[in-house]
Task: inverse folding
């Protein structure tokens, strides 16, 4: 009986897609549970209902109601979806980052600088492992093709995301593409994004709690029919509705600080993949006798 039940379970991606499609219609408490599940895919299969409820600031019954909202008899049945995915992957324990945080919380006495460094390095490594396991190849290829065909590429990222936005602009400027950093210097986000048009691409890098400036730029891009690439941590974010293509990153964290390692890695990969495509086009043009125009 157990095997038959397992076969009928949806995949994690199918479940998360259903949650995303119904997110806006969920009551506030169930939205909190949905966000928790999206952000803790690696550990939700072993998390206790009471711990999830505490993290979400809701009663445990809300966690059960959430599962029932999506056709499960209880929360343990929803967790089985994630257990099935873990069994199929045969990868390392999905609660790796959770164990790091717990170890830090329980570590008595003072912590040396070297220990801090190693804990943070381990958290970054865990984030990279998760990026490797969860990267959507089809979405990544679509993102590269969008940039390849773009007339202009605009990049926006505020506060914590600003260093990443600055880096990808620096990297993309080593290609023939026209690249613009929407920096907002002088408070001029509106002025810097207003020229975006159909045929352009806007790359938005944003993580919870999602900068209002980035949301504004994505809305403008969507209104002007530009294509949009969202690099974020959740398909339930308010930016997802304006994204043509989405790439998700769950950074490792230690001592309550999230790293940028995985996001930088993903952006470097985007640049390298784009440069590779553009160079291939140049080589093909040379083979046919050079540029016609």
Result:
């Amino acid at each position: 009986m157990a095997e038959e039940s397992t076969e009928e379970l949806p995949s994690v991606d199918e479940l998360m897609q259903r949650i995303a499609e119904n997110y806006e219609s969920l009551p506030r408490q169930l939205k909190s549970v949905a966000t928790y599940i999206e952000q803790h895919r690696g550990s939700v299969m072993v998390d206790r209902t009471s711990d999830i409820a505490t993290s979400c600031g809701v009663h445990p019954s809300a966690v059960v109601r959430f599962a029932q909202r999506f056709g499960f008899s209880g929360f343990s049945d929803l967790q089985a979806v994630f257990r099935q995915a873990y069994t199929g992957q045969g990868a390392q324990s999905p609660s790796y980052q959770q164990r790091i945080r717990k170890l830090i919380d329980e570590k008595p006495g003072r912590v040396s600088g070297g220990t801090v460094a190693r804990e943070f390095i381990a958290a970054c490594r865990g984030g990279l492992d998760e990026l490797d396991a969860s990267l959507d190849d089809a979405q990544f290829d679509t993102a590269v093709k969008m940039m390849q065909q773009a007339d202009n590429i605009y990049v926006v990222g505020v506060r914590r995301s600003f260093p990443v936005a600055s880096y990808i602009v620096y990297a993309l400027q080593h290609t023939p593409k026209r690249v613009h950093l929407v920096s907002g210097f002088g408070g001029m986000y509106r002025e810097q994004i207003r020229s975006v048009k159909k045929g352009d691409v806007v790359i938005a890098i944003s993580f919870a709690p999602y900068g209002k400036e980035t949301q504004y730029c994505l809305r403008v891009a969507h209104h002007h029919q530009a294509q949009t690439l969202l690099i974020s941590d959740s398909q339930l974010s308010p930016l997802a509705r304006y994204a043509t293509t989405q790439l998700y990153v769950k950074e490792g964290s230690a001592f309550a600080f999230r790293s940028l390692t995985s996001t930088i890695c993903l952006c470097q990969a985007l640049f390298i993949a784009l440069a590779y495509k553009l160079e291939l086009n140049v080589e093909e043009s040379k083979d046919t006798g050079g540029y016609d125009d």
